[in-house]
Amino acid sequence: MSEIYPPFEPPRRILMGPGPSNVSSRVYRALARPTIGHLDPAFLEMMNQVSDQLRLLFGTANRLTFAVSGTGSAGMETAFVNALEAGDTAIVGVNGVFGQRMCSVAERCGARVVTVEAPWGEPLDVGELIDTWRAHEDARLLAVVHAETSTGVRQPLEELGAALRESETLFVVDAVTSLGGIPVRVDDWGIDICYSGTQKCLSVPPGLAPITFSERALERSRSRGGSVQSWYLDVGMIASYWGAERSYHHTAPINMLYALHEGLRIVLEEGLETRHERHRSLGERLQSGLTERGLELLVAEPYRLPQLTSVRLPDGVDEGAMRRELLDRYGIEVGGGLGPLAGEIWRVGLMGETCRWENVLSFHAALDELLEDNGT
Amino acid sequence: MSEIYPPFEPPRRILMGPGPSNVSSRVYRALARPTIGHLDPAFLEMMNQVSDQLRLLFGTANRLTFAVSGTGSAGMETAFVNALEAGDTAIVGVNGVFGQRMCSVAERCGARVVTVEAPWGEPLDVGELIDTWRAHEDARLLAVVHAETSTGVRQPLEELGAALRESETLFVVDAVTSLGGIPVRVDDWGIDICYSGTQKCLSVPPGLAPITFSERALERSRSRGGSVQSWYLDVGMIASYWGAERSYHHTAPINMLYALHEGLRIVLEEGLETRHERHRSLGERLQSGLTERGLELLVAEPYRLPQLTSVRLPDGVDEGAMRRELLDRYGIEVGGGLGPLAGEIWRVGLMGETCRWENVLSFHAALDELLEDNGT
């Protein structure tokens, strides 16, 4: 490069992909408030408020409830590196990319991974998960994805949590795409470690991973034989910064935490029930519009997420080209398929701020034009 | 909690601690620009520009030059987890908190750590480092901190880099507090992995860790026996997202990257030499003002960082109380001492946007009043 680049001006987009979602102007304003120190008394008080507000969203009384200084995958890694030691058994449900990713993360912790699989687009069989656990009752954890971002499947959790509740096996749940869009009840469902991301149904830019640890999950991390393999994600030390001791660990992403604080206020102002109902009703409207157009949805009704819809494209459509056209002509971003679904589906998000009726209408209208232009 | 918290309004602060530093209004504006997708063609082009601009700052032609999606300590962890495998030897220089942290991170990689130590406030002896390396020529890496944030010591690097250049040992440098404040010349000095943070001399809020890997360092990570123990920080996979393949790995912290892009533009507009000279001359002005007041500086002149000054407090002063008074009455944040220096010193930063003559004058004036009120 020979000269300085011009300022970056992002193009106008409606973010209807699998995340990030659109962000409220209130959150942008919070993000741009003046940076203060990570040990400033005013900042520490704000961190307490973030924890309190996250507890309401997660439905938990867990003391250790905070935001990991990284994106959703850092939340996943935080769950596994703290819960697992080399040689442990981890049972992981796999019906999409994020279940696969959990296996990879668990293997890198030196765990023996036992998988329970289902076809992409279907939920895991809860009975099979429980049977697998009974065959491996010494498993250190059992992990599933609540809302599989690669397919749009909702995984039922209640029965699984009830089965594991009195056991030695920690129940780990990926709520990256569910928190703030559909109910997540950590304490009621007996979840030990639950993590999310900011850029999905919370409508805060990516960069933080809200997470909560039950007392026994925290104790598991603290009482382990060796050190947690990640210094950055070691919750024993992080708990001393987010907790009353306020020991410096690493510099928190200060402005991102301002944004999360404001994003959580917006969620609580709307109310969780109202917010879930908004996602439910507009998701249904999006989906019925697609089936009315003769398009097939990947996921069967009872397991279909309202906030993320996988739709099969008609035969003969060049998925990538049409997705690019949707972006260039209409400014609408949707996601393509991953893995075995690449080229087959679109993933259409209606998360948080994006979940508005005008976006549903715009998407349907743009799709009609594109399908007509493509001769289908 | 029974009601929703009010919006968070940060108090007015002059950030003269060891980081974060003050942030330009241009960077705040960039931070608050509308979020777009992490696979949006416009965003990918901006990532290329961030890499290009970082190469200029690091003084490198390294292809793999990017920003880790975490704070400075995540940069440190990225360096070590990719370079080290269990059983490797790592030589680490320790003369402060961040050298100690490197040991902890290396141990968690299963490495055998050989330390070379110096008293806090003094640089490491380069001859001793080289001798130690000769005694362990099979060492996988030798790591030192360029600007030790816990003491304000500058570590000379050139001779060390020259000694290691033709060897099998990777030269790893922590430039968290140096990049953008004093010269960092990755290629000239033969550094293989160099990482920094955004919230120091780059004056961007915390949340990203700029990093660069030489080809041989990247090759080392790719050709290792087992997987990198961190999925999130595995540069083999991250390189496929930042590189031409653009394979999705994890969702990048989009708005933080907007901010870094703008922060780097500001650095390049000022010019690196001018910027280094500004830090040099104002650091000297701050420091001479302190010695004129009869205060003792921790670090001897040739190794004293201009951007971070450790000053001993007069006997009988309650350091914590006076630091709190400086914050409450004057809105000036400075850092206290860490480890053996707790209660003994203040760490006064003049980094990036904070490095202005009016801040030097304000700090001197506030200090005069506080010392008078404390009867010294």
UniProtKB/TrEMBL annotation, chains A, B:
Every Aminotransferase class V domain range: 35-337
GO biological process: glycine biosynthetic process, by transamination of glyoxylate
The keyword Metal-binding is annotated on this UniProt entry: no
Top-level lineage group: Bacteria
InterPro entries for this protein: Aminotrans_V_dom, PyrdxlP-dep_Trfase, PyrdxlP-dep_Trfase_major, PyrdxlP-dep_Trfase_small, SP_NH2Trfase/AEP_transaminase
Residues found modified as N6-(pyridoxal phosphate)lysine: 200
Binding residues for substrate: 347
Protein name: Alanine--glyoxylate aminotransferase family protein
Species, as recorded: Candidatus Kutchimonas denitrificans
Organism placement in taxonomy: Bacteria, Pseudomonadati, Gemmatimonadota, Gemmatimonadia, Candidatus Palauibacterales
